[in-house]
Design a protein that fits this description.
This protein is α+β, with helices and mostly antiparallel strands and about 625 residues long. Helices cover about 20% and strands about 25% of the residues. Among the domains are: about 60 residues, no CATH class; about 170 residues, Beta Barrel (Cathepsin D, subunit A, domain 1); about 130 residues, HIV Type 1 Reverse Transcriptase, Chain A, domain 1 (Roll), CATH 3.10.10. The longest helix is centred in the middle third of the chain and has 17 residues. The two termini are about 15 Å apart. The relative contact order is 0.08. The C terminus is likely disordered.
Length: about 625
């Protein structure tokens, strides 16, 4: 169904208003568009404008070339790190890809947002060179990422293999670049000095930005070289119109879902620092179940000043909305009251905003930081509201998230969890209620998680403090998963099915499991529940495809959503309608469908239906 036929806003895809009255100030991110509509309806909007008499839209074509020979040594691209500055004085260390094959310099939209550069096709970015000299680089904004992740190397380790590189100040580089430096700034690319070794060894060039190495490297991903393993592919050159490219991209993404071969993650130095910090600073509470954690702070936390005036401005804007929307106000006050009743937050002090703080006023207390907050509904029916804290709100160029390490991505791939979820006959699921809020913050960290609230009619503003892990902090997912796995190690039996399930079959707070028999399901659910209670994690919303599962709630909706897709589990104890019997049989069943159907997961089981080791294939189909 088209957006216009569904009477949706072209800008935010919501009902009840037109795009010209939409409050969201967003623009299409498709290259060379910039119009006020959602990027997902770019093609539809363009075709509608053409139908009502506008000029026919030109077909946008994309050309690209890729070539990696099989069994070829990995090639490290010329990349280095440089400091880029915005016109407001903000700076950020960025990964620069030196590309002499490009005739234009590009900056990613991610970097544009980080430096708060103005939107537009072109922008100038001040850049600091290795000698402290500042150059202004004229660039163009790229609406999408510049390239895929590029092969780099841990040059601080690799250079020791090559005598001609050992004394050079090379940096560890690799990943998705922030700035693509092209020949339009050839003065920055021109080499001032070159170091070469023997044939087949990498070379290093020194330009105005510093030293950058490139070329073939001996080593694999698991070796000290620290580089990505090269995969053999076929050289391809293609020219494709935009619409055909979108459809092909959608098709092959669906075909590859859950089947990609991904290397084991290589933690960066920063990630290793975070994991080491959490290993030492996730501590068991004395005399009660649960854990307390010290958050992984960057050294810049010492520069984080008071932001009470900014927090007051954000609160006043939110208060105006509450006064206009009585239903939103009711839900918001209820959500705040629940946070206080559950003990997740507590009142610290009150103050009169009309009075200036004098000596001894708690508003002048050092070490406190105030988080703006907003309400987000969990569903389209606007029934359940969650309070989300804005840890990215900046004060003097710094925010809470800027002075926190985010940590590595620890959650298991969603497709792996879903595949194992339908591997055996009896499947069941549950989730942890208020997972983040079950983890206590260290008192010094909690002081940086204060927020303002004031009921209608009250003169004084109340200052509350979140004493639990906060939804909105960058490292919260990493901290929560690390604490969950620590609970399994501390209170589970090493090598047991329960510990393995906690470590492998949770997707953040959702537990999805399947086993061969109902007895095993009951036993495993009991053991995992008892382990997690020791960490103050409460499992709720039990659901199974077997109606005899004792933990399933009486009023549970047996056609429920699982990780954003619908699970049709009405097949009862026969595991999704597979025919009973021990003979060799084949069955093809649609088991998971997206909420907004564009693809389906199809489970094909070939072999004996009673054999737990029979072949299992997960396929995707476009619909």
């Amino acid at each position: 169904m088209r957006v216009a036929e569904a009477q949706l806003c072209f800008n935010c895809l919501s009902r009840g208003h037109q795009a010209r009255f939409c409050r969201r100030n967003t623009f299409c991110s498709v290259t060379d568009c910039g119009r006020r509509h959602h990027p997902l309806v770019h093609s539809e909007r363009r075709s509608e404008q053409s139908e009502v008499g506008g000029a026919p839209a030109a077909t946008v074509a994309t050309a690209a070339t890729a070539a990696i020979s099989p069994n070829r040594r990995p090639i490290a691209f010329s990349m280095l790190k440089a400091t880029l500055m915005g016109h407001n004085g903000m700076s950020r260390e960025a990964l620069v890809f030196v590309d002499p094959g490009s005739d234009v310099t590009l900056v990613s939209s991610k970097l544009r947002k980080a430096l708060q550069l103005k939107k537009g096709r072109s922008v100038s970015v001040p850049l600091s060179t290795v000698g402290g000299e500042k150059r202004t680089v004229a660039t163009e904004i790229e609406g999408r990422k510049l390239t895929n992740e590029l092969t780099g190397a841990q040059w601080t380790i690799v250079k020791d293999r090559y005598p001609h590189l050992r004394d050079l100040p090379l940096q560890d580089v690799g990943g998705e670049p922030d700035l693509l430096l092209g020949l339009d700034h050839v003065e920055l690319l021109a080499p001032r000095e070159v170091r070469m070794g023997r044939q087949g060894e990498p070379i290093a060039e020194k330009n105005l930005l510093g030293w950058a190495a490139k070329g073939p490297i001996v080593g694999r991903a698991s070796s000290p070289a620290g580089i990505a393993d090269s995969q053999g592919t076929v050289s391809v050159h293609f020219l494709m119109a935009e619409e055909e490219h979108r459809l092909a991209h959608r098709f092959f993404n669906g075909e590859a879902l859950g089947t990609e071969v991904k290397p084991q993650p290589l933690w960066s130095n920063e990630d290793q620092v975070v994991l080491g910090h959490l290993e030492k600073n996730i501590q068991k509470l004395d005399g009660q179940p649960g854990y307390m954690v010290k958050l992984p702070w960057r050294p810049q936390v010492e520069q984080l000043g008071s932001n009470l005036p900014q927090a007051e401005q954000r609160w006043m804007r939110l208060r105006q909305r509450l006064s206009r929307d009585s239903r939103f106000k009711e839900h918001y006050e209820g959500a705040i009251q629940r946070i206080l009743t559950e003990g997740f937050a507590r009142e610290i002090y009150t103050y009169d905003p009309s009075e200036k703080p004098l000596e001894g006023d708690p508003r002048l207390e050092s070490g406190q930081f105030f988080l703006p907050h907003q309400g987000v509904y969990k569903n389209e029916r606007r029934e359940k509201l969650r309070v989300v804290f804005d840890a990215s709100a900046q004060t003097c160029g710094l925010s809470l998230n800027k002075v926190l390490f985010c940590g590595p991505k620890l959650q298991t791939e969603v497709t792996h969890v879903l595949t194992r979820f339908r591997e055996f006959k009896v499947a069941f699921r549950s989730d942890i209620q208020d997972m983040f809020a079950r983890i206590h913050l260290h008192p010094q960290d909690a002081k940086k998680h204060r927020f303002l609230f004031q009921k209608m009619g009250e003169k004084l503003i109340r200052v509350y403090q979140m004493d639990r892990l906060t939804f909105g902090d960058g490292p919260s997912p990493c901290v929560a998963i690390a604490t969950l796995r620590r609970t399994a190690r501390d209170f589970g039996t090493k090598g047991s099915l329960a510990v393995e399930s906690i470590e492998e079959n949770f997707y953040v707070d959702d537990w999805l499991e399947s086993v061969a028999t109902l007895d095993v399901a009951e036993s495993l659910a009991k053991e995992v529940d008892e382990i997690l209670k020791q960490g103050n994690f409460q499992l709720t919303k039990w659901l199974s495809n077997d109606g005899r599962f004792s933990r399933m709630e009486a009023n549970a909706d047996r056609r429920d959503a699982v990780l954003g897709v619908f699970w049709d589990n009405l097949g009862g104890g026969s595991s999704q309608g597979l025919p009973d019997g021990g003979g060799f049989q084949s069955s093809l069943r649609v088991i998971l469908t997206a909420k907004k159907p564009s693809w389906m997961l199809v489970w094909e089981k070939v072999g004996s239906c009673d054999n737990a080791n029979s072949n299992l294939i997960l396929r995707t189909c476009l619909c």
